[in-house]
Amino acid sequence: MTTPTPETPAPSDFIREIIADDIKTGKHSRIVTRFPPEPNGYLHIGHAKAICIDFGTALEFSGECHLRMDDTNPAKETMEYVESIKNDVHWLGFDWGPHFYFSADYFERMVECACELIRKGKAYVCELTSEQWKDYRGIPTLPGKESPFRNRSADESLSLFAKMRAGEFPDGTLCVRAKIDMASPNLHMRDPVIYRIMRAAHYRTGDKWCIYPTYDYAHPLEDAFEGITHSLCTLEFEVHRPLYDWVLEQLAIAKRPRQIEFARLNITYTVLSKRKLLELVRDGYVKGWDDPRMPTLAGLRRRGYTPSAIRSFCQRVGVTKFDSFTDIALLEFCIREELNQTAPRFMAVLDPVKVVIENYPEEKVDWFDAVNNPEDPAAGTHRVPFSRELYIERADFREDSPKKYYRLAPGKEVRLRYGYFITCTGFTRDEATGQITEIRCTYDPATGGGNAPDGRKVKGTIHWVSAKHAVPAEVRIYDRLFNVEHPDDVPEGVDYKTNINPDSLKIGQALLEPELAALPRGTRCQFERKGYFMVDPLDSTPAHPVFNQIVPLKDSWAKAGTPQP
Ligand code: ATP
Ligand code: MG
Prior knowledge:
- By secondary structure, this protein is α/β, with parallel strands linked by helices.
- The chain has helices at about 15-25, 45-60, 80-90, 105-120, 130-135, 155-165, 215-225, 240-250, 275-280, 295-305, 305-315, 330-340, 515, and strands at about 30-35, 65-70, 100, 125, 175-180, 195, 210-215, 230-235, 260, 265, 325, 345, 350, 350-355, 365-370, 380-385, 390-395, 415, 420-430, 435-445, 460, 465, 470-480, 505-510, 525, 530-535, 545-550.
- Strand 1 (about 30-35), helix 2 and strand 2 form a beta-alpha-beta unit.
- Helix 7 (about 215-225) crosses helix 8 (about 240-250) and helix 11 crosses helix 12.
- The protein binds adenosine-5'-triphosphate and magnesium ion.
- Adenosine-5'-triphosphate binds next to helix 2 and strand 8.
């Protein structure tokens, strides 16, 4: 397996302790885990947690992790999803080596195991309809009733099972049940269905099968066939574990995998159910699985998130047995922390107002050196043009200037980042709209590069672009997809989609310094004082640059002396 870029090793947790112990006691000499997504949707940030645990533990203990398409339910599975899953796992930094599997490839062996269970008197063909079964199954506090077919002979069951497979019965009629315990307080142990008739084309096996195994029966077998030692999954499978163990026990499988459950990831301001994510895509609430507002790995990638920031997030979330919510701000913190170290910085004006420097010659251009990243001296510098007409942010100018306001206002002097000190001498306004249309200033020619030789200080530093060099670009500013913390938390009869944030995407026009406009697709950068952005990997062209906002900036220019508003 390839190793993701070195990070601090994950702190220990109850799963890692179990594995370490199994190695110490000699129970296992080699660890084998698996990540088993159903190819019925794209992977999301919750799956990233599972991937980091499954692949991460295998890596740490020098074992292997299998990628398995858990495709026992053909209805909603497609090859497009299979490809997206492989792509996303690789992107996240993990590799399964030769261990890529399809559950569907085990169908024949699973049928053999079912026959073995029938022969051992541990399973039978049942003819009760699912309606009738509701009555037989009972409720947790009262035992159920035994199916009248429970004690039919193994031969009769085997023959009926063969006919089920041969397509002699309609969908949903006969089924195979495990013969366990109709009085068990755990309803999953009350003769659960292991095979059902379902005429559905499977993306891999086509029309070959009209019977399909259920998840609870198939999963322990898949794990056993592959020699999985630790089958890690989310807490909702805890009540299924007795059935998982039962299947393996009846079949007398020598090396039994052990199922261990951990809490699933829940994040505020989003939904993480594949059914809901599919609905958002299908019904056009977002532009696709890779819409940058989606919590899918494809969406996060398109937005500009890095695999390492996502792995770091998963590590910080940790592994526990307690269901809880993780604040989406933690994910934003992780990408901000990384990009602060790695993303080059540029100037872009998102809401421009023109500034004319009255005493600066018409044709003159100064080129100033701008530091690419103060956190990374090796990142070097780039050149920024300065001329008589500039754009600054509308919010960096005020007609009045209250105390502690350090940016531009009539009579006030500010530093233009990397440029000159300028002093505001006046402004014009559109009387109809009340908007400022132009700001007039003078500059001090001795302050080029942002320093005054007489040592005089200005408190405010603002960013700018040269009007005649500025390149217009489309900027896509994303907000949370839902405007409440727990969008799933709705009263009976209310749809979670009522919580969708109608302003989750705002498209604006920005003016960029020329170097910024020349960055290739997929490049991440900081717009100084604004946030982290990425050149859109698909839509951006040199003639029409498009930038996605990854996250806004939280840190202010404290060091540069600009208190934020
Ligand atoms: P559904 O929402 O349709 O039940 P799922 O999200 O459980 O599907 P699977 O394809 O079955 O999707 O998931 C593959 C693996 O990822 C499983 O082992 C599952 O436990 C794990 N997983 C899924 N969602 C989360 C989550 N939110 N946090 C952690 N692990 C998850
Ligand atoms: Mg599932």
